[in-house]
Amino acid sequence: MLKIYQFSKSYSSGFTLEIQSLELKQGTHLIKGENGSGKSTLFKAIAGIHAFEGEIILEGVSLQQQPVKFRKLVNYAEAEPQFPDFLSLDDLILFVSKAKEASSSQIAHLKEAFGVNNYAANSISSYSSGMLKKASLLLAFLGTPKLIILDEPFTTIDAEAQQNLLGIIKNKKAKGINFLISSHHLPDMQEFEFTSIQQLINGKLINR
After folding, report:
1. What is the dihedral of CA 31, 183, 95, 83, to 10 degrees?
2. Confidence of residue 183 (pLDDT cuts 50, 70, 90)
3. ABC transporter domain spans which residues (predicted)?
4. How far, in Å, are 137, 148, 166, 181 from residue 45 at the CA level?
5. Coil, strand, or helix at residue 32?
6. Which of the two ends of the chain, N or C, has the fewest CB atoms closer than 10 A to its terminal CB?
């Protein structure tokens, strides 16, 4: 499903994330690590946001050689999402749904599932941290991606939203969609049958 070779991403601070070789098969994979271990760096690279050295291939599509095609296969929700204050969630949905070719019925279903209908037309500047997180998660499920990356998806949202998110993930898993998840807090570990658990320590990946 996902192959990473000779990956390297360095920062001026001196921190470097390096992965010589990693192959993840179809399924749901957990990436563990303390803050600053490189989880978000890895996720942003796979999502096509951060430049890097090396190669990332998903379903036979190379991010370096076919960046547009690759990005259509991957959806990503950040741990601490930020959006332009003057936009609304409806504006963001309109933009992302065009790029991801999401249907109106899918949009309506996700808005209901995440409970955002009451504020989707309001500007982002009025959103709480929980509302922002729900917005980011909703966008990550638009379209028909092959891989959905969720960075700390269960933080800042309430218990009901967590359960709704679990249900959405289960539904997508049943349809063959793959997941990369990082989380310090999973509502119920038994809800997940992880295909693999990877541990990041100081920019180095350890397969468990």
Report:
1. -120
2. confident
3. 2-205
4. 18, 13, 25, 14
5. strand
6. C
| Structural contact between residues 132 and 143, judged by C-beta atoms closer than 8 angstroms | no
Contact 180, 147 (CB under 8 A): yes
Rg (CA), the chain: 17
Alpha-carbon distance 48 to 151, whole Å? 15
Residue spans of the domains in the chain: they are 2-207
Query: Cα–Cα distance between 197 and 15 in angstroms, integer?
Result: 23
State the angle between helix axes of 159-174 and 104-114 in degrees (0 to 180), rounded to the nearest 10. Answer: 140
Cβ atoms of residues 105 and 97 within 8 Å: no
* Backbone torsions φ then ψ of 78, nearest 5 degrees: -75, 160
The pTM of this model reads: 0.93
Q: Look at residue 206 and tell me whether its pLDDT is greater than 80.
A: no
CATH architecture of 2-207: 3-Layer(aba) Sandwich (3.40)
Structure tokens at 109: 């279903």
- Residue matched to tokens 């090396």: 54
Residue 183 has phi, psi (to 5 degrees) of -165, 135
Q: Name the DSSP class of 190.
A: G
